[in-house]
Specification:
The structure holds two protein chains of two kinds. Chain A is of the alpha+beta class. Helix content of chain A is 27%, strand content 36%. In chain A, helix 2 packs across helix 3, helix 2 packs parallel to helix 4 and helix 3 packs across helix 4. In chain B, 50% of the residues are buried. Chain B is mainly α. Chain B has two domains: 274 residues, MetI-like fold (Orthogonal Bundle), CATH 1.10.3720; 260 residues, MetI-like (MetI-like fold). Classes of the chains: A alpha+beta, B mainly alpha. Chains A and B meet through strand 6, helix 2 and helix 4 of A and helix 1, helix 20 and helix 21 of B.
């Protein structure tokens, strides 16, 4: 057992390079999402595993066997698609059974397996219906059952939840994870929705312009991004320009224009005056309700509150800094005080220096 | 030293290239088998015969090209050398080109104080003729005039139908398809029955009440008959173009201040232009290639002037000749001229149809059309106009039905003999031609269904170099003159050195059934392949990927996923191919020599004097056509491209 191994894959459409030199090893039973903005090549990469696209160079191995140039039907992959792709001229049962029929499995065995799979996705009551008679969410469940019925070596998911409404998306994504874990199946899951990726993945592979940026568990890519793109793409954040004033050991003082001075920690030694990009997540900033307290604290930035929205469990503040940059804050401690401050007033916020991420151009400074 | 790495790269890129091809073939062998075999079929049965005709047109010997077969590959033995003699002879002959028109000829002639033989009244004869400008120019004039009149009528109706709401609109939409139901020959017969010298209108209306006998002759007659049929093609094309225009495009223009004629001129018309242009070119080509109308106008009314067009000229040399002499260089040169117009026109249409897609962009509001309710007066005007067009256009059909029951103009008596004749198995009966017609056209349709489904599938689903040429090859038969293809087949398959040493065109019992079925298949292929193509465009490719992903080969996914999903399109397209096969004229007339092998249209062409017999066959073909057309319309939901093949 060795899962899916992608080695240095490059895929071109005429002159356009969709995927460039991507290597990725998905271990057996692992759920890896390929995450990236639209047009980044993630679907192309997935389709090359399924066999619908042929790479110009590189190799793809499935369970130790090279499948790079194998036709799709001989690969042992199963895929679920964004628009479900249920065959409208077959019943739900026929849809689910079809893969087994192709393998020459006898009718009774097929039916048993289909029922079993439909139970797994909680759709056994729909067995005699036609695909057009059920909703989108139900169709995707059927598609999942259809894919799982053939016991594939790997389940490929091509943005399976994009066409569903928000609530259903959340519900189905946990279910996909649960089912795949119960069956111990290897899953490669393509999505552009970072919260979906964070919620279900064992590991996330972030793709940009056809190139792999970082691969790692959700916590890692969220808290420890390798570059600015990954930092900005995963989770919410504000990026500010800063200039290094002084550095003692791993403690760096960074000036954010007239907004203030903040501390950050990194080992790499830089010259004072270095221009940095500072990435701050909303939950790592707090609003300081009174000015006096702010004067006595470090890591304070000042600005004018431009929007101030009460969200129930937190208040979202959009702060305009003197540098004309915007800083987004999710205030969870002083909800009432912050809320009462209103807009177009001066405010002071404190940044948690442990969580400040610094970048030189695109590169993360550690 | 620098040469070494260069050599290396060349070597590896060559082996890369072959590796790539090999991998590609291995990955999807079936698609490649389909592409190659269908290309071979069309090269063999479409390109080669046409090349033979072109070669013949430019070689010295009378029967210059002999096709000799080495196994299945044709080789051309060309006796004689390249010459422009035939071309010079034709182009310098006043018979073919006479720019000033024939001397003493007339456009319109009026003879008063004449005796009308049928009623004995004294009447004024009005002859509407158009001058004879020579066979080649006449053909072009026929094409242009028919297109022009069809354009005026077709576009007006399309615009009215697409933009106005009036009582009885749905009925008129159905009625306007009826003029499409005019089998070959029948248009001419219906014309002569209704407005020929002894036609019903002249006999019972014009001579009685107006003291006039109006006679359309020559080119005017051909144009008249063709227009009443071909305007529907323009109507369908433009109508679907107008419906495809996103209403918000026009609303946006109105919003910015354009309205009325300005809106039409600056927004609507340019957006509908692709439909108008492709419809017009199609009509132009088909009008120039029409053989049935001149044959019947000559046969039924004895109008010699109606024979002065290219198709009839070719046909005439063929029926006059014996064996190989049936096809002479002059006929092939004329064929090449027709072919030139056809091919240029075809590629023009292709360009425009590709352009047509831009009118579809941003079609976000389904069911929201720009129909405007019109007032009572305008409604009456619209209905009167449509009624008039419909009545004139269907005069032909009424005429045919009438004459099939009342064959004799001099002695009008109701009889069903002509219909009983369908069950007459004797030499004079219609049983044999009917049986042959059904056999040939069903056989051809069967081949067409299989080949067109496969061809449409690879053309739509597979990306391969030369794809647009492949697509052109499959659809160009719509434009290729049947008479030219027929000549090519004759040259290709009738020599003693024919394929496997067999003369396919005289060999019993196959003579010429097999070749004829193939010719029907080739000629009617575009209708089915277009319909299949349209179906595939509406069928998401992901459905197939889902199947292949689960282990289905391309063959199984084609058979079990795609075919059931596009079955309506296949049936609809095949029905049209079938109907047009049943009415095929040109190649049938050239390839069939034996009465026992003749079809209904062959029978019609050889009995042009027997009006009752012709009309009964016409009615039969019309009924079949009507049923198929409405079934297709129902299955394909009024898709003009399927019906017109473009």
């Amino acid at each position: 057992m060795e899962g899916v191994r992608i080695e240095n894959i490059t895929i071109k459409y005429d002159d356009f390079t969709a995927v460039e030199g991507v290597s990725l090893h998905v271990k057996p039973g692992e759920l890896v999402t390929i995450l990236g903005p639209s047009g980044c090549g993630k679907t192309t990469l997935l389709r090359s595993i399924a066999g619908f696209v042929t790479p110009v160079s590189g190799h793809i191995f499935l369970e130790g066997k090279e499948i790079t140039h194998l036709p799709p039907q001989h690969r042992g992959t199963a895929m679920i698609f964004q628009n479900y792709a249920l065959w409208p001229h077959m019943t739900i049962e026929q849809n689910v059974e079809y893969g087994l029929k192709l393998k020459g499995v006898p009718k009774e065995v097929r039916r048993k397996k289909a029922v079993e799979m439909l139970k797994l996705v909680k759709m056994e009551s729909q067995i005699g219906k036609m695909p057009t008679q059920i909703s989108g969410g139900q169709q995707q469940r059927i598609a999942l059952a259809r894919a799982l019925a053939v016991d594939p070596d790997v389940l490929l998911c091509d943005e399976p939840l994009s066409n569903l409404d928000a609530k259903l998306r959340v519900e189905l994504r946990t279910e996909i994870r649960e089912i795949s874990k119960r069956l111990g199946i290897t899953v490669i899951y393509v999505t552009h929705d970072q919260s979906e990726a964070l919620a279900i993945s064992d590991r996330i592979a972030i793709l940009r312009d056809g190139e792999l940026q970082q691969v790692g568990p959700p916590l890692e890519v969220f808290h420890d991004p390798d570059n600015l793109f990954v930092g900005e793409f995963i989770g919410e954040s504000s990026t500010l320009k800063g200039v290094l004033e002084e550095q003692e050991g791993n403690k760096a003082k960074i000036r954010i224009g007239d907004a203030g001075l903040i501390t950050a920690y990194f080992e790499e030694q830089l010259e004072p005056g270095a221009e940095l990009k500072i990435l701050i997540r909303p939950q790592d900033v707090n609003v300081i309700p009174n000015k006096k307290r702010a004067d006595n604290e470090e890591n304070i930035l000042k600005g004018i509150i431009r929007t101030n929205s009460f969200m129930g469990d937190h208040v979202r503040v959009n702060l305009e800094l003197p540098t004309e940059e915007r800083l987004i804050i999710a205030e969870r401690k002083h909800i009432e005080e912050t809320s009462r401050m209103g807009v177009d007033v001066e405010a002071f916020v404190q940044v948690n220096p442990e969580k400040v991420l610094c970048f030189l151009e695109e590169r993360r400074i550690r | 030293m620098a040469a070494v790495p260069i050599l290396n790269t060349t070597k590896s890129s060559i082996s890369d290239f072959f590796n790539k091809i090999f991998r590609e073939l291995k990955k999807d062998p079936l698609s490649w088998f389909f592409i190659l075999s269908i290309t071979a079929f069309f090269v063999y049965f479409l390109v080669v015969p046409l090349i033979i005709i072109i070669i013949t047109a430019f070689t010295t010997e009378n029967f210059a090209v002999h096709v000799r077969w080495i196994y299945i590959f044709p080789t051309f033995d060309i006796n004689g050398s390249f010459t422009l003699e035939t071309m010079k002879n034709v182009l310098s002959s006043r018979r073919f080109i006479q720019p000033g028109g024939a001397p003493l000829d007339y456009m319109i002639r009026i003879e008063s104080q004449q005796k009308y033989p049928l009623t004995g009244q004294t009447v004024t004869y009005v002859y509407i003729k158009f001058k004879d400008y020579g066979i080649i120019l006449n053909t072009i004039i026929v094409g242009i005039l028919t297109t022009l009149f069809s354009l005026i009528i077709g576009t007006s109706i399309a615009f009215i139908m697409a933009r106005y709401k009036f009582p009885g609109k749905v009925i008129f939409q159905g009625l306007m398809l009826l003029p499409l139901i005019v089998p070959p020959f029948v248009g001419g017969i219906g014309f002569s029955v209704m407005i020929g010298p002894q036609g019903l209108l002249n006999q019972y209306v014009f001579s009685k009440y107006l003291g006039l006998v109006i006679i359309f002759q020559g080119i005017a007659g051909i144009v008249f008959v063709q227009t009443l049929h071909f305007f529907t093609l323009i109507y369908l094309n433009v109508y679907s173009s107008l419906l495809n225009i996103d209403p918000s495009l026009e609303e946006q223009a109105e919003n910015l201040g354009a309205s009325g004629f300005r809106l039409f001129r600056t927004v609507t018309f340019p957006l509908a232009m692709p439909g108008i242009a492709s419809g017009s070119i199609l009509v132009l080509i088909l009008a120039m290639e029409d053989l049935g109308t001149p044959i019947v106008l000559y046969g039924a009314t004895g109008d010699n002037a109606a024979t002065k067009v290219i198709t009839y000229e070719i046909y005439n040399t063929i029926i006059a000749g014996e064996a190989d002499a049936r096809i002479n260089p002059q006929a092939t040169f004329l064929g090449a001229v027709l072919l030139l117009f056809a091919i240029v026109g075809f590629f023009f249409i292709r360009k425009y149809v590709a352009l047509r897609q831009y009118s579809m962009i941003s079609k976000g509001r389904a069911g929201n059309t720009r129909e405007r309710k019109v007032g009572v007066l305008a409604s009456i005007g619209i209905i009167a106009f449509l009624m008039a067009v419909f009545l004139i256009a269907t005069l032909i059909q009424f005429g045919i039905i009438y004459r099939s029951l009342v064959p004799n103009a001099q002695n009008p008596q109701l009889t069903f003999d002509n219909y009983k004749n369908f069950f007459n198995t004797g030499a004079e009966g219609l049983w044999i031609p009917l049986k042959n017609t059904l056999m040939y056209s069903f056989g051809a349709t069967f081949i067409t269904i299989i080949l067109a489904t496969i061809a449409g599938y690879v053309a739509n689903r597979k990306k391969f170099p030369g794809q647009s040429w492949f697509d052109a090859l499959l659809t160009i038969p719509i434009a290729i003159p049947g008479i030219v293809l027929g000549m090519g087949y004759w040259k290709m398959f009738s020599n003693s050195g024919s394929l496997f040493g067999i003369d396919w065109l005289t060999l019993n019992p196959l003579n010429p059934v097999l070749i004829l079925m193939i010719s029907y298949t080739v000629r009617r292929f575009p209708f089915t392949v277009r319909a299949v193509y349209a179906g595939l465009q509406q069928t998401d490719e992901v459905l197939e990927e889902a199947a292949m992903n689960l282990g289905a080969s391309r063959y199984r996914s084609l058979l079990e996923i795609v075919t059931p999903l596009i079955s309506f399109n296949i049936i609809g397209g095949a029905l049209i191919s079938l109907v047009y096969s049943m009415g095929e004229v040109s190649t049938t007339l050239i390839l069939v020599l034996d009465r026992n092998k003749g079809t209904l249209t062959w029978d019609m062409a050889h009995n042009t004097g027997e009006i009752g017999r012709l009309c009964a066959i016409g009615v039969f073909l019309m009924i079949i056509q009507a049923i198929s057309l409405f079934a297709t319309n129902f299955l394909l939901k009024n898709r003009a491209e399927a019906i017109t093949g473009i």
